[in-house]
Specification:
Order of helices and strands: HHHHHHHHH
Helix content: 55-70%
Number of helices: 9
Structural class: mainly alpha
Length: 196
């Protein structure tokens, strides 16, 4: 499935004097992220659970990144990493009989690198995305806001899908979550049930 035919032809990343998006810049960004989303949905071969999971993680990651005010480049990395973070799940189910996080990280780096090869991303950006895919279940040595946001977004979705206990959620909020937005979303979705 190739959605990159004529993708952003002639578009270059430029920056206005005040750091805002210009028309070409925003279009290139939206095309890359949207086209990678379409490619990943096709890659998922109709597995609705996997597709719905990646869409939810993407939505949380996008929301956290925007609310935390990350740079445009970092936002793009966050969103693409969120789309690809579980790329290894189908292979892990087949090869290992489960989707253990360590297996996902091991297999995901190779698959993400192959997946991104024809997506037209700068090499350093693609490598950062591959790194995040290969570490998204490792909660130590988190080395950037993009990494932190991916962990928080994935946890928000997993807490719902796997029915985590209130104790688990509170513990993770206190020991893993770092962004004000991620903490607020976790509290709103799982811990703060008071109705005004």
């Amino acid at each position: 499935y190739n959605v990159f035919v004529n993708a952003g032809a002639g578009a270059e990343r430029t920056r206005g004097n005040n750091g805002t998006w210009n028309g070409l810049d925003r279009r290139r960004y939206e095309m890359n992220v949207s086209q990678i989303m379409c490619k990943m949905i096709a890659y998922s071969q109709g597995n609705h659970h996997d597709i719905n999971h990646l869409m939810k993680v993407y939505a949380y990651a996008r929301t956290i990144g925007v609310c935390e005010g990350v740079s445009r480049r970092e936002q793009e990395i966050i969103e693409i990493a969120a789309i690809l973070h579980d790329i290894a799940c189908p292979l892990c189910r087949e090869k290992y009989g489960n989707t253990n996080g360590k297996y996902q990280e091991k297999e995901g780096t190779v698959l993400a690198r192959e997946f991104l090869a024809d997506c037209g991303l700068p090499e350093d950006m693609a490598e950062r995305i591959v790194y995040l895919v290969g570490h998204h279940h490792t909660l130590t040595d988190v080395d950037g806001m993009d990494y932190q946001i991916l962990i928080e977004a994935d946890y928000l979705v997993n807490a719902d899908e796997s029915h985590y206990s209130q104790e688990n959620i509170r513990h993770t909020m206190e020991t893993v979550f770092r962004t004000a937005t991620g903490i607020s979303l976790l509290q709103s979705a799982f811990l703060d049930f008071s109705i005004p």
